[in-house]
Amino acid sequence: MQVAIIDEGRAIDLGGCRFHAIWLRDNAADAETRDPGNGQRLIALRDIPEGTVVSEARLDDAALHLRFEPEGKTVTYDTGWLMAHAYDRVDTRGPGWTGEGIETWDAGLMTRIPNAAFDDVARDRAALAGWLGGLARFGFGKLTGGPVEEGALLKVAALFGYVRETNYGRLFEVRTEVNPTNLAYTGLGLQAHTDNPYRDPVPTVQILYCLENSAEGGENMVVDGFACAERLREENPRGFDLLSRYCARFEYAGSGGVCLRSRRPMIELAPDGEMIGIRFNNRSAAAITDVPYADMEAYYAAYRRLGEIIDDPAMEVSFKLSPGECFVVNNTRVLHARKGYSGTGSRWLQGCYADMDGVRSTHAALVQELGLAAE
């Protein structure tokens, strides 16, 4: 590998990858720039002189030594770190690409669901890391053999993060009620949906934990919303564009003192086109008013087709929970549903919300702690 100063010191070329001087100086890891203990920056960009350039560049094994002017400061970089963070590339990704470590799926996931025993992940940090890695990759995971007791799902949330309390409480009951405030509390079948699309931000993890399940029917289903959006994009690029470009509206006012509203696309993309979220919930959809007249008919056709793809049995993984079992979904990606169930027997689940940042943080920390290979 060779290094050369280019553009009058405003950049370097390291083995064919270019890096700007200002980027390199901003990402210096010396003790004056970053705290050695927590890694946080000790300076702001305003503390780096405008017009910063590289005046000297020298390679020594896996280390790159750069001198910056006008500071007269020499900084050493690990070349492996630099190449892992290289940004000098041609981006050929189109709208709707998914991030590294994300694997989309259909009904074929049935044979490889991220599944673990509660006692194993509670006691064995390597087992927990493996299960969380699967949850991050697929947006879905199951646990079996948990305690059959009220509030047990809070122990699941504590494995990786914290409960997100909402107007439904710290946890909520999912069983038949008289005069329910939400259709989830009936025996009706529910179309696959993401929860709380009317909330901004939405809870990004949902846990549903089974305490009783002797009723006929009531199987749970999960569907990868990212895979459904990818299928729509392949069939109908314009429809994908409409659902990602225009905002839908969602609302909930089913209980006293609560009036929740949001305005977000059904398919949410980052500015660079990365697919980062799905919001789909027919029960909570409000009137769509942000689509121009000229596009509304095509928008509704795309909306209908997305729903048909979501309803396609080829996209779903279905299962029936037993007491002490639970499933966890990334609520910004994976839709969940249930089939209708009879009035005989009993079906009692408890649910709660948490967040994916806890899943990702705990997984990354365990990978580092245990020296595991990154997923």
Automatic annotation (TrEMBL):
One GO BP: carnitine biosynthetic process
Molecular function terms from GO: 2-oxoglutarate-dependent dioxygenase activity; metal ion binding
UniProt-listed Pfam families: TauD
Superkingdom as given in the UniProt entry: Bacteria
Sequence ranges assigned to domain TauD/TfdA-like in this UniProt record: 116-353
CDD domains: CAS_like (cd00250)
Reported cofactor(s): Fe(2+); L-ascorbate
Gene3D superfamilies from the UniProt entry: 3.30.2020.30, Clavaminate synthase-like
UniProt entry keywords in alphabetical sequence: Dioxygenase, Iron, Metal-binding, Oxidoreductase
Family membership: Belongs to the gamma-BBH/TMLD family.
Protein's recorded name: Gamma-butyrobetaine dioxygenase
Organismal lineage: Bacteria, Pseudomonadati, Pseudomonadota, Alphaproteobacteria, Rhodobacterales
